[in-house]
User: Fold Cytosolic beta-glucosidase from Steinernema hermaphroditum.
Amino acid sequence: MNQTKTLLLIALLVTTVHAYKRFPENFQWSTATSAFQVEGGQEGTGRGMSIWDRYLEKHPTPDNSTGKIACDTYHKFREDALLLKDVGVKQYRFSVSWSRIMPDGRPDNINPDGVRYYHDLIDSLVKKGIQPLITLYHWDLPLALQDRGGWLNEECVNWFGDYVRFMFTEYGDKVKLWTTINEAYIHAKYGYCGEPLEHAPGGFKPNCEWSMYIAAHNMILAHSKAGNIYKKEFQPSQNGQIGITLQAVWYEHENKPEDEEAAARVFDFQFNWFAQPIYGKEGDYPVRMRERMAELSREEGRSRSRLPTFTPQQIEEIRQSADFLSLNYYTSYVVSQDLPVNNTVEAWGKLTQWGRDIGAYISTNPHWKQIAGTWLRSHPQGLRSVLNFIREHYNNVPVYITENGSMDTPEEGLNDVTRIEYVRGHLEALHEALQDGCDVRSYAYWSFLDNFEWAFGYHDRFGIFHVDFKDPERPRTPKKSVEWYRKVIAANALLD
Ligand code: PNW
Assistant:
């Protein structure tokens, strides 16, 4: 045996001894960002405005953030590819800015600099052995399309179809993993209702009772259009896979039948709202959701349900529109039918239109570690429950975890031990889910870089790399979690 082989054997033995949870051989480690949150490069680049540019002009974040420079990945993607390579990820999830490709959202006006930018970005990743996973739409609709109704206009389905067909044609020989829309649930609820938090396009609070359901409906149809275009026109020659990115929250409940039913109802109005039409055996919206919305609408004196309906043909097409499920998971809540007694935390379910439509109280478990006093509480077993739900109810469709992560706690700075603990907990739960038989193919930490965190501006930092937003160069500094994640990836296992 030569020296290299001996060394390799020793290295293998050492990792075997210390690795206590090993991941499958082809498991893909990844990290993620989205276009508006990191790119910058807005001026002099031919990019058209998106709904977030206008929204921020009218509704500044507490720290007066804009997306003008952000992390400047528009200029710094080559250095970033080096950092990604150094961490060891084999996949990188990012999104494309529709209005950078098509400044007014339409295929008759293409921005060549934008097209070149994504080619350069993809090439620099592929050259380093990193597979791109592209999200086609991560909440940044071209402003020109919002002026024509945005996701409330069913035409948006066709606009999206034209955009994605261009993308598959242009990049499909290099990109083998596509997701259509990021978290339609958050985009419909925050963007087209504004409770409990508002996102762009905003201004729909008075119309919540219908606007979020219509927006969500058109996003499902748009996903379906994109999925069907890909599968019919491109997949046979390009051999890639397509899915949609769904956010799941898990809902725990007390051991009472009415609470169990309430928790199932909330999950139907959140995850299954999108998952059931696309991945469910029968397709269409969940039965509980349809029945509840029909009943409420009748009581309100309406002649038809506030929940729109699909035609039988649409139901069929939607059911054939995805190869895999791209999952984002951050946190869990507690659900009860009645106002929780001895409630130590705010039960907010019924304060929103969505909560009233469900008819249940949503609160939290004070024992789950709260991160930096925010909405985020760590409950890793929620991830395992979601994955098992998918295995049982959606025929064990392959899952790509495209987001999971936590923000900095201010005291820790670069020594981000809370983040390491959060990720370790979730990877342990993920490992258990794999033992349970769940078909999970990858894990992407959100996020690669500190970035524009929507309503919270640059204040909430999710990156494993710190970004100095006061410095025009936007320097990146690894946090302690980079070193930790690098070791996990190298060993393909959790270590002691
Ligand atoms: C995601 N929740 O949104 C988005 O996809 C990212 O763009 C964002 O930066 C990231 O999570 C961190 O917030 C979420 O309430 C919004 O559980 C809300 C929740 C989860 C994810």
User: Anything to note?
Assistant: The two ends are 30 Å apart (CA to CA).
